[in-house]
Amino acid sequence: MIVVMNPGAKEEEVKKITDKLERMGYGVHLSTGENRTVIGVIGQRREEAAQAMEAMPEVEKVVFITRPFKLAGREFHPNDTVINIGNVSIGGPNLVIMAGPCAIENEEQLMQAAEGIKAGGASILRAGAFKPRTSPYSFQGLEKEGLEFLKEVRAKTGLLIVTEVMDQFTVEQVADCADILQVGARNMQNYFLLRELGKIRKPVLLKRGLSATIEEWLMAAEYILSGGNYEVILCERGIRTFEPYTRNTLDLSAVPLAKQLSHLPVIVDPSHGTGLSGLVPAMSKAALAAGADGLMIEVHPNPQEALSDGPQSLTPEQFQELTKDLKGVALSVGKLI
Ligand code: PEP
Ligand code: MN
Description:
Blueprint: E1 2-5, H1 11-23, E2 27-32, E3 37-42, H2 46-54, E4 59-63, E5 83-85, E6 88-90, E7 96-100, H3 107-119, E8 124-126, H4 144-157, E9 160-164, H5 171-175, E10 180-183, H6 191-199, E11 204-207, H7 214-226, E12 232-236, H8 254-261, E13 266-268, H9 270-274, H10 280-289, E14 294-298, H11 316-332
Parallel strand pairs: 7-8, 7-14, 8-9, 9-10, 10-11, 11-12, 12-13, 13-14
Antiparallel strand pairs: 1-3, 1-4, 2-3, 5-6
Helix pairs in contact: 3-4, 3-11, 6-7, 10-11
The structure holds phosphoenolpyruvate and manganese (II) ion (MN).
């Protein structure tokens, strides 16, 4: 349920209401708009809470939320969430580009990739130190050593870092070097991990699970939000279908739909979405046209030698070409690049 405060309600009036709700045993989450504060109320016995709130003169109305995702939905938070990290903002008018290799292989490879993506206008470097591979015999990532390389490259280039965290035990370690923590598709419903990420105060990039419905994806976001971490970025990365020519089927209808249902920023990963570098430029443009707030693209200095996901990785030159081409699409959909 949400409690809508009177227009222009003062801070102390809001506090009076949240204190009362907390005394009654409810969880409260605030959404502060330009002239309206909305309080998300989480807990059982909602009729009782509604009656108590309707009796308060500071409250304009009480609305029951019908969707199962309460905090991720637009009813609670009508305006877009914009996540600011340094001078990069995600979910606002600027298109944000995250790019880099699938995995950190060594310091030189990471640095070359970072320089290449920076020259192409990316502001965030993606690269995995912990790799969730389908086969236990495939390269699993450099783990701690990889995180150290990320720190160095971050300091040298000024790029922000997004990197995957695979379990609840390494959240602190990854948060120490990452500006954004990535939850991989295979972990979208790892609820212990999601709960731990709800406790930190750093943005989380939540990839859609391989076979997850939009509602399951938003419910996964809800786990993080309900812990009090309101900075979640949704990432569409393709879903499993019967089509074998592509690695996954990039569900671009998920972009406008997730944006209708939720206030959270939505980005698209056309690399995992297709598995083929030759399809990445077209699907990047399509994602932007569909309303994506950003892109995550795999870029490797030498895709043929990549230890993971070479076939879907662009070279730095191809990436730079693509970002030039994106400008026209960005202009036509009112995004800045
Ligand atoms: C990745 O970003 O390298 C990755 C493993 O992605 P996903 O979880 O979408 O497969
Ligand atoms: Mn990858």
